[in-house]
Fold these 2 entries.
Entry 1:
Amino acid sequence: MTAFRPRPEPIEVARTTLTAVELLEVLWGRASTAPASPSQMRVLLMLEHQDGINLRTLADSLASTPPSTSRLCDRLVAAGFVERVVSPADRREVRLHISTRGRAFLDDLRARRERELQAVLELMPAAKRTALLEGLEAFCDTAALQIHDTAAHTGDRTA
């Protein structure tokens, strides 16, 4: 006999998700030999998805100032993770690209994180893993739509 569980409210799911994210951070911290700060990681992930954006757009996306974002990118350029390229359309504009080394760094980091996560998932019952997968797929689809809609309404300049 299965126990009746009422449909969870978004706040309950949000709190449990927050706990899961915090636990993921702990797991991923164990997998990390990252020479990049959390802010630098955000830049790398943004460039991976929006390769070739300019500094102002990146600063807006990070909710940061252009000078702070420029210094952040300076460190990533020095590490060989990011390349700056003058825009062919406007020589005053600099486009940011993740480098081959930056991509390799992210690939390696993801592989180590995946191994840590897989070790936990292997301990879960198969039915719970299936339910988690279905829920996460729905969450990712919904979040991607919301992010896309928000970007469209705020005049995202990366297009």
Entry 2:
Amino acid sequence: MSNAHTHLPPGVEIIATLPDAASRIAVGTEARTILVTLQPGDPGAPPHRHPGPLFGYVTQGEILFELEGQPPRVLKAGDAVFEPGGDVIHYQGANNLPDAQSQLVVTMFAPAGSPVLTVVGAEELAERQHLRAPRP
């Protein structure tokens, strides 16, 4: 983090930074701020991909998060998340709590009019199984 962040006003806190973020955002994209609310035990969307990178944080609860090439991990309120979008498969984004709501806010950069997510079919999942990190 640069020195520019050392003198922030009271109540302003940098939660996470993403170096070189601009290099990941294609020309002509729009920014979308998306609120994802998962009810207790909600498994989230099936395996999918996003049209562009996203960056955000968990505002409430716990989310079981798994991205292609990374082991599953639990993100808790206050944890940041980055996803490169494009070809990378987002396997899980489930509420890890059976008795409480979980929520995250992300900003996605994507071509105007593109879907927020595209579900990945069973055949492609099987073809890319070798790219999925081993699970405990």
